Amino acid sequence: MSYINTYRTKNNTNSRSRKWNNSRPTRSRSKSRRIGQYIDPSRFIKIATASNEKPYEPKHTFSDFLISDKLKSNLAAKRYITPSHIQDQAIPIGLSGKDVIGIASTGTGKTAAFAIPIIQNLTTDSSSSAIIVAPTRELAQQIEEEFRELSRGCGLYSTLLIGGASMGRQLSELRRNPRIIIGTPGRIMDHLKRRALRLDKFNLVVLDEVDRMLDMGFVQDVSDILKQTSQQRQIFFFSATMDTRVRKLIENFSTNPTTISVKAGLASENVHQDVIKFQHNNEKLDKLHDILINKDVSKAIIFDETQRDVEHLAVELVSRGFSTEALHGGKSQGQRRRALSMFKSNQVNILVATDVAARGIDVADITHVINFSIPKVYDDYIHRIGRTGRAGRVGYALTFVENRSNSY
């Protein structure tokens, strides 16, 4: 019997039900259908198989790149030896000063692909400054952490501009004229409107997960930010997709960019995907319980629809003895940082989250992604399941689907 099918055949008739309908806000059947009607549940079923495609063979090692000894030392300290596909191709182009378009999914090593050329430029040209724009707080924080580790000892100062954090502290840090700004579009625009930040000297620009920023409605903010940067700039665009909106943004702000595409398929080849059918909420919760007690589920992200749903589910799982934290946009920045830190350090092994966590979480050892609610669009599903099956590991994605028919 396959690993996936054990979920389907497990006996879930037990006495663990805790009147879930009374503790969790119920959704109407019509609303459930509205959410699920965009995606055929059969798209959630896929057995990961060994790929016949040969692994990418890099042309360089990190020590081959024309970068400072200090930067090479920091890379060695992080045990970076062989670059990934996107790093191997993007870093030399970035070091040459050309604009870069990277079509790459999360988990391909794209942060280092732009961080290394930028840090090298900043350490050799004291007049340069860099701004990196990301769609979410979590992604901005992870980029800032990567920059801090790679630039250790290089004399560079960075500031993180994200919502939910102290505006006063950010204003104080901006007065120190940091040469690296990392932030989300909304908070960067707040500082620009306050005239606490000027970008006319910033000649190194990164837009990370451009498609996601545009999906979130930041197209005008991103355009306004780019307009205020130096006219003699180098831009790095990184996006999982290249749709009309992204292409238009690039055409408006870039000159003769070099495109590198290492985009994987619509879903990771390393992720087993399956559906879990349920009839009602009590059965749904008990089936989730049965999945989580499986010894192979060592670290899991569970996605639910709303902040309230996430809180209710997290409380219920804690009451059942599971080590669980909740992550959603209603929490303070400190609470979100703490939840992520506990999850990364294995103080908890279950994170219940809204789609705020679908991008920007880079944790290599997540074994399972569980969609307790169906994502509204298929792209969200792809971003969710991309949290597992990383670094060559096999991951598992399980999606709860109401059993209304036998058509799948």
Descriptive notes:
The protein folds into 2 domains: 179 residues, 3-Layer(aba) Sandwich (Rossmann fold), CATH 3.40.50.300; 200 residues, P-loop containing nucleotide triphosphate hydrolases (Rossmann fold), CATH 3.40.50. Helix 6 packs across helix 7 and helix 9 crosses helix 11. Strand 3, helix 8 and strand 4 form a beta-alpha-beta unit. Helices cover 38% and strands 15% of the residues. By secondary structure, the chain is α/β, with parallel strands linked by helices. The longest helix is centred in the first third of the chain and has 15 residues. The strands form 2 sheets. It has a 7-stranded parallel sheet, sandwiched between helices. A 6-stranded parallel sheet has the order 8-13-12-9-11-10, with helices on both faces.
CATH superfamily of the largest domain: P-loop containing nucleotide triphosphate hydrolases
Distance between the termini: 19 Å
Helix content: 25-40%
* Spatial shape: globular
Please, what is the average pLDDT? Answer: 85
Figure out the total of helices: 16
Order of helices and strands: HHHHHEHEHEHEHEHHEHEEHEHEHEEHE
Architecture of the largest domain, CATH level 2? 3-Layer(aba) Sandwich
The major beta sheet can be summarized as: 7 strands, parallel
Computed over alpha carbons, the radius of gyration is: 22 Å
Total domains = 2
Structure keywords:
single chain; 408 residues; alpha/beta; Rossmann fold; 7-stranded parallel β-sheet; 6-stranded parallel β-sheet; disordered N terminus
Q: How would you briefly describe this protein structure?
A:
This protein has 408 residues and is of the alpha/beta class. The chain folds into 2 domains: 179 residues, Rossmann fold (3-Layer(aba) Sandwich), CATH 3.40.50.300; 200 residues, Rossmann fold, CATH 3.40.50.300.
